[in-house]
Design brief:
Number of domains: 3
Helix content: over 70%
Number of strands: 2
Number of helices: 20
Largest sheet: 2 strands, antiparallel
Transmembrane segments: 38-59, 79-105, 126-146, 158-176, 185-204, 210-231, 304-324, 330-349, 377-398, 410-427, 434-457, 477-497
Radius of gyration: 25 Å
Keywords: Membrane, Transmembrane, Transmembrane helix
Structural class: mainly alpha
Shape: globular
């Protein structure tokens, strides 16, 4: 296996690359169009039954989150830019645009062609698709949630900023894969500083009308400069590392297409490192449940850092939604807070997957049934409660004095939200294999709807959290919302135990023996 690092490709290199790709796409006489027919069918069903009614409702009702003024729109655009840029960088570190089919990459690496000849063209196509994939949802979300596109003075610059955001997101995706960790930290810090600067300049402007145009110009310039540097870095990418990333990516893709998305995500779970001795006391015995959970969480420092940020942020947003005036902003804050707490509950506890494995294996050690749950769930419950309470308590102190009943309502709502999140996380982590019953067709006058059930099964945890938080926010009584969350969490626990087969192992007989 030999590679060349010459800048100019050999004569006929492009034709050779296209010939290999054409031959691989038509291997075995299969047509590449047929493999995407069912996906297009599901997308069309989703659009007819969900997107069309939502768009119609958004066009005939007031905006959920009014923009208010151009400076406020610029500030929201700056915050969205930072989030999208950081998310694209993080995604590029795990699954970037340079990932190819392992067999194709092996064939290319076995030739004398430089990496830029077979990675450059596919990277350009994927970046164009990624930019469009960011542009369309951003514009759709802005149209559905805000009234930015209802005013001419903000519609055109808002559209230009969305185009620039799509271009920057695509470039940041490539940057996250081809550049070192230090360069990614510099880009992340630069994105934050630039966003703060643009927001400050827009707020200092009396009219504020040029803030979105300034944001669009900054995004376009940053995308052009960073894209040029990132494409030059393709020639220096490590091919062995790219081969490992491609093999892992397509193994995860095979899991996802067979209905086990949780197994695909497990492939990207970081391996624990260090702090092994912290799990034991000086006399060799294991430490307590909370100490073990904290040590296991700190062994994956990246996930622990994400939990440290997301849990207080989720608690703060939940309290803002509970104590603020009713309306679209309060609902949006509540939903965002619920999603943050849900994500943090998985990042802070590395014992969830161990609990699933222990419940599905034979009880060889004969441990009392409650010991398994106490040992694995004590730390996640305490950590999620403490992190959410910290963020929510800071918001309550900052907004004091409040009405006498608001702290009580906020406490009940946030407590119910924590219980709901823990139940949904338990339901998600107890997932094993795809039930075969979900593969049976569901014939309706509107077509086969079994694909929608598969999507719901894949994302049942996040669907439970978002739906439950929305219903809790709509209830007029805080005790009623807390009771609803408790009941939903109980249903999630029962369904999770059924998934690992405990409903057929005699759970109540275990309780009687205990």
């Amino acid at each position: 296996m030999t590679t060349r690092s010459a800048a100019a490709p050999l004569p006929g290199t492009r034709a050779r690359v296209q010939a290999v790709r054409h031959r691989y796409a038509r291997r075995g006489g299969r047509s590449p169009v047929r493999s995407h027919t069912y996906t297009l069918y599901l997308v069309s069903l989703f659009g007819v039954f969900y997107l069309v009614p939502i768009v119609h409702a958004a066009g005939t009702s007031p905006a959920l989150v009014p923009v208010g003024s151009p400076p406020a729109a610029t500030a929201v655009g700056c915050a969205l830019t930072v989030v999208v840029c950081w998310g694209a960088q993080l995604a590029g570190g795990f699954w970037g645009p340079l990932v190819l089919q392992p067999f194709l990459l092996h064939v290319y690496m076995s030739t004398d062609m430089p990496p830029t000849s077979y990675l450059g063209a596919v990277t350009r196509r994927r970046l164009a698709c990624a930019g469009t994939a960011v542009l369309v949802p951003v514009c759709a979300a802005v149209y559905l949630v805000t009234d930015l596109f209802d005013h001419l003075e903000t519609a055109l610059p808002g559209l230009a900023a969305a185009v620039g955001l799509g271009a920057l997101a695509a470039v940041a995706w490539l940057w996250g894969q081809v550049r070192a960790v230090a360069d990614n930290l510099v880009l992340a810090a630069g994105a934050g500083i630039a966003a703060l600067t643009v927001a400050a300049v827009s707020r200092a402007d009396p009219d504020g009308g040029g803030g979105l145009w300034l944001l669009a110009g900054v995004l376009a310039a940053a995308a052009g400069v960073l894209g040029r540097v990132a494409f030059r870095s393709i020639r220096t990418v490590g091919l062995p590392r790219l081969a490992r990333e491609s093999a892992r990516a397509f193994e995860a893709l095979a899991y996802a297409w067979t209905g086990t998305l949780h197994h695909a995500l497990d492939l990207y779970r970081p391996e624990p490192r260090g702090l092994t001795s912290a799990l034991f006391r000086p006399d060799g015995r294991l430490r307590g449940h909370l100490a073990q959970g904290a040590a296991r969480a700190l062994r994956t420092r990246g996930r622990a850092a994400g939990a440290v940020v997301s849990l207080p942020a989720g608690g703060a947003l939940a309290v803002l939604g509970a104590t603020g005036p009713e309306g679209g902003p309060a609902l949006l804050a509540c939903l965002t807070g619920a999603v943050c707490v849900y994500l943090g509950s998985g990042w802070v506890g590395e014992t969830w997957r161990g609990l699933r494995d222990e419940l599905t294996l034979a009880p060889l050690l004969g441990e009392w049934w409650g010991g398994v749950f106490a040992r694995t769930l004590a730390w996640p419950a305490v950590a999620v409660t403490a992190g959410t309470a910290l963020g929510g308590g800071l918001v309550l102190l900052a907004r004091w004095p409040l009405a006498a009943e608001q702290p009580v309502e906020a406490f009940l709502l946030v407590t119910g939200l924590v219980v709901l999140v823990l139940g949904a996380r338990f339901l998600r982590e107890m997932k094993t294999q795809l039930p075969l019953g979900l593969l049976l067709p569901i014939v309706t006058p509107f077509g086969d709807l079994s694909g929608l059930l598969l999507v719901a099964w894949q994302f049942d945890g996040i669907v439970t959290v978002v739906t439950g938080a929305a219903v809790m926010d709509s209830l007029p009584s805080a005790p009623g919302a807390a009771a609803l969350a408790l009941g939903t969490a109980g249903c999630c626990v029962v369904m999770g135990l059924r998934r690992v087969g405990w409903a057929h192992r005699g759970l109540f007989s275990r309780l009687r023996r205990a």
